């Protein structure tokens, strides 16, 4: 498990480690709406499940739809329903 507080940290960790699941926050500092982190995940960990995390509903709808078209596996809205997230991941 790893945690990144900024996009450059996420990029560094994704380049040096392998992940099965990556939660991508649209508001990650230094990120272009999560799209750059999504791209890096796709390049470095192509088999990882990519789950978009956002508190936005209407403002980021276009960004969310674009990322879904590019292959985001799921979208979770804040506050995160942990039970729902675990069900999505098949962890229960």
Could you walk me through the main structural features you see in this protein, from its secondary elements to its overall organization?
The protein is an alpha/beta fold and 92 residues long. It is built from 4 helices and 3 strands, in the order αβαβαβα. The protein has helices spanning 7-16, 35-44, 61-70, 82-89, and strands spanning 21-25, 49-54, 74-77. It has a 3-stranded parallel β-sheet, with helices on both faces. The protein is globular, with a radius of gyration of 12 Å. The two termini are 18 Å apart. The model has no long low-confidence stretch (mean pLDDT 87).
Topology:
Blueprint: H1 7-16, E1 21-25, H2 35-44, E2 49-54, H3 61-70, E3 74-77, H4 82-89
Parallel strand pairs: 1-2, 2-3
Helix pairs in contact: 1-2
């Amino acid at each position: 498990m790893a945690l990144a507080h900024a996009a450059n940290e996420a990029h560094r960790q994704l380049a040096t480690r392998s992940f099965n699941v990556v939660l991508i926050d649209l508001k990650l500092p230094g990120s272009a709406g999560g799209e750059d982190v999504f791209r890096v995940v796709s390049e470095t960990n192509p088999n990882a499940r990519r789950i978009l995390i956002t508190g936005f509903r209407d403002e980021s709808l276009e960004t969310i739809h674009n990322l879904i078209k590019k292959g985001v596996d799921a979208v979770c809205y804040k506050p995160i329903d942990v039970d729902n997230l675990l069900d999505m991941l098949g962890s229960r």
